[in-house]
Design goal:
With 205 residues, the chain is mainly alpha-helical. Helices cover 52% and strands 0% of the residues. Helix 3 crosses helix 6 and helix 6 runs antiparallel to helix 7. The two termini are 31 Å apart. The mean pLDDT is 90.
């Protein structure tokens, strides 16, 4: 069920024009697979921020569950975690993220119209590695960051549309070209952020 139609049913329910059965039917028709929901709320905003913090597979956040590519990405993430755990570079949050990482995350949050809950989460995450991130910092970054995506509830497109339009890689290229990201920020892969802009795909199955 498209987001616009779902929203109309919710409004009708709030106004007393339809009953609970109609609301439940509309909500049930809005989700088409297991896994994260298709609106850009806190969970999906977090997925995006983990990519821009360098802590997750590049381009893997919004690949649908139950697909061969999702399975391959899950295996790749597991192998990478094991490799990092056994390497001289400790696979820790504090080793990977620094000031550059948090600037990247805040810029991404602003550029995608992400969940305002992350104005709390990012502050706590920064503090966990000994950094001070404030709302004033976020306001300053917001003032120079354009809104590049309007994903539901900030628009009518859902996360699948965002992924189909290029997702992480496209967004990162746009922000890097505008000088709004630190492309040299570290990631859990063997490349800095600017080297992680490929779109994952399966080759020969």
């Amino acid at each position: 069920l498209p987001n616009k139609e779902k929203a109309a049913v919710r409004e009708a329910y709030a106004a007393g024009k339809v009953g609970r059965p109609e609301l439940i039917a509309a909500e049930s028709a809005s989700y088409h697979s297991p896994g994260t929901c298709t609106f850009y709320g806190t969970a999906n905003s977090n997925q995006m921020l983990m990519e821009f913090l360098g802590l997750q597979l590049p381009g893997g956040s919004f690949v649908n569950p139950g697909t061969p590519l999702r399975e391959a990405l899950t295996r790749a993430a597991t192998w990478r975690a094991v490799a990092l755990a056994g390497s001289t570079r400790a696979a820790s949050f504090a080793v990977t993220v620094d000031e550059r990482s948090f600037v990247n995350a805040v810029v991404t949050l602003m550029a995608t119209g992400g969940s305002t809950n992350h104005t709390l989460h990012l502050v706590a995450m920064a503090r966990a590695v000994g950094l001070t991130l404030t709302w004033d910092d976020m306001a300053a970054l917001s003032a120079v960051t354009p809104l590049l995506a309007r994903v539901y509830p900030n628009g009518t497109a859902d996360v699948n549309h965002f992924q189909a339009a290029g997702g992480f890689a496209f967004l990162a290229r746009q922000l890097l070209a505008a000088g709004l990201l630190h492309g040299d920020a570290l990631t859990v892969w063997d490349a800095p952020l600017h080297g992680c802009l490929q779109v994952p795909d399966l080759a020969d199955g």
